[in-house]
Design brief:
By secondary structure, the protein is mostly helical. The chain has five helices and no strands.
């Protein structure tokens, strides 16, 4: 694809085909990037957690957010806020690692708030209360410090 026309998928929808780095930043065409997550994949909750944890551990929270977003969009209505909150936390970590500390902190707190209704339980084994607390603590830390290392800060989903 050249830069003068929009990238399109097989169905003709606009899709950015530029390669991306581990934090989801677009790279120039022709540059090697990291493998992207398939869009719209339907996974079991266990598969979602396993794949997202793998990506978080690899320092790729942007890509983990895409996994959570698929679960949010395809999962049962009563779990949408859980997956949305996890996606927001992953994006918050992404922004924090990119140096956008204000946006990162805001998304970490928003994700922690979305997880609050699930804190008393462990849906699918996810350590919701611990993740909520981790996100709030990281939000406070990134507001006053340098960008964080996404892999070093990767949360434990199953705690």
């Amino acid at each position: 694809m050249n830069e003068t026309r929009r990238d399109r998928d097989a169905e003709g929808r606009a899709r950015n085909a530029r390669p991306r780095d581990g934090l989801g930043r677009p790279l120039p065409y022709g540059t090697p990037g990291v493998e992207r997550q398939p869009e719209g994949a339907v996974r079991t909750p266990a598969e979602t957690v396993r794949e997202a944890q793998r990506l978080l551990d690899a320092g790729m929270p942007f890509h983990a957010h895409e996994v959570f977003e698929d679960a949010w969009k395809s999962g049962p209505e009563d779990e949408r806020e859980l997956w949305r909150g996890l996606a927001q936390i992953a994006v918050g970590l992404t922004h924090s690692a990119r140096g956008n500390t204000e946006g990162g902190a805001r998304l970490l707190r928003r994700g922690a708030g979305a997880l609050a209704p699930f804190a008393a339980s462990r849906p699918h084994g996810i350590a919701v209360a611990g993740l909520r607390d981790w996100a709030r603590e990281l939000a406070a830390r990134v507001e006053s410090g340098p960008p964080v290392d996404a892999a070093a800060e990767a949360p434990r989903l199953l705690g």
